[in-house]
């Protein structure tokens, strides 16, 4: 298993630059008059270690053609991206002959995710299962909202920029400390 995941530029997430009206028009154009379909998922993931294989079952709904549409009335956050990513990985394995994408639409814009190859999708799902299994045995050592804010800010820095780390920390600080609303540090778990 890889220590980290590498994604080609623009494949994991790209922010459409259009406004809400353009996004709504794109949804209507992409979905057309066809009714959404649901895809049954029944996977046996080869997870190394004591568990052997892990069965993953469920249904991925709201699939129009090869596009999974997910909407939220809130701002898209890490939990929305992870949920979409897991569904997209499951689709890549359930329908290996198709190239899927996920379109997330939130209060302040959208995000597009593109499915990897079936082999990469299986590897990523196995990594996620292993992370979940580990998380069920040990407490999580990182606050997720703050970590997501840091990762998003750090991703925008130039490689080798000596100030990139500090800039990312500065951008993540308000998520941790809060402002108008409580920060993640107000959660008793992190004290």
The parts where pLDDT drops under 50 for at least 5 residues are: 1-20
What is the overall shape?
Answer: globular
Query: Main sheet, how many strands, which sense, barrel?
Result: 5 strands, mixed
Radius of gyration: 18 Å
Number of helices, where a helix is a run of at least 4 consecutive DSSP H or I residues? 5
User: Strand arrangement, largest sheet?
Assistant: 1-2-3-4-5
Average of pLDDT: 84
In whole angstroms, how far apart are the ends?
A: 33 Å
Q: What proportion of the residues is helical, as a percent range?
A: 25-40%
Please report which band the strand proportion falls in: under 5%, 5-15%, 15-25%, 25-35%, 35-45% or over 45%.
15-25%
N-to-C order of helices and strands: HEEEHEEHHH
Number of strands: 5
Summarize the structure.
By secondary structure, the chain is an alpha+beta fold. It has helices at residues 20-31, 78-94, 118-137, 144-155, 164-177; strands spanning 37-46, 53-64, 67-71, 101-106, 109-114.
Highlighted features:
single chain; alpha+beta; 5-stranded mixed beta sheet; 5 helices; disordered N terminus
Overview of the molecule:
The protein is of the alpha+beta class and 191 residues long. It has 5 helices and 5 strands. The chain has a 5-stranded mixed beta sheet, with helices on both faces.
